[in-house]
Amino acid sequence: MWKIKLATLESILLAARNTYPNEFMSLLGGSRQAKNIDELVVVPAVFGETFTLVQTHLIPFDQRIVGSVHSHPSGRASPSAEDLNAFSAFGDIHLIVGEPFALDSVRAYTVAGKAVRLQVV
Predict the structure, then answer these.
(1) Which end of the chain is least crowded, N or C, by CB within 10 Å?
(2) Is 93 exposed, middle or buried (0-12, 13-18, 19+ CB in 10 A)?
């Protein structure tokens, strides 16, 4: 089970609300060994209503990047085929936040798209 700090999750939800109706995307910092997420790593990106274009060549190498997070303004918080392709580029844990961007609208997935439990600490 992965854990996420409440303050980090609140930052994610705020970012998703602030970019609505566009999709939001960023990276997650933490510890793979401890399965802990404690940082929102903002990356250069272009946000659209049904996509996010990440400027991957501008992302610095950072061993603390454990995964990604993005929003689904449609409200459906399950991964699309495009999401599954992108998951492999950004770590082990991937969060999708569905509209209305509340604590109970966050879902966590492995690189393969398998749902996993996320504990808020």
Answers:
(1) N
(2) buried
Distance of CA 18 to the CA centre of its chain: 15
Give me the chain's average pLDDT, please.
89
Q: Which of 39, 32, 27, 40 minimizes the C-alpha distance to 2?
A: 32
SS3 assignment, position 118: strand
In the chain, % of residues over pLDDT 90: 64
> How far, in Å, CA of 28 to CA of 4, rounded?
10
Phi and psi of 13, rounded to 5°? -65, -40
For the stretch 42-77, pLDDT in tens is 877 656 566 566 666 556 667 889 999 999 998 889
The domains of the chain, with CATH numbers, are 2-51+65-120 (3.40.140.10)
The pLDDT of residue 42: 81
What does the pLDDT read at residue 88? 85
Phi–psi pair at 39, nearest 5 degrees: -150, 140
Residues in the chain: 121
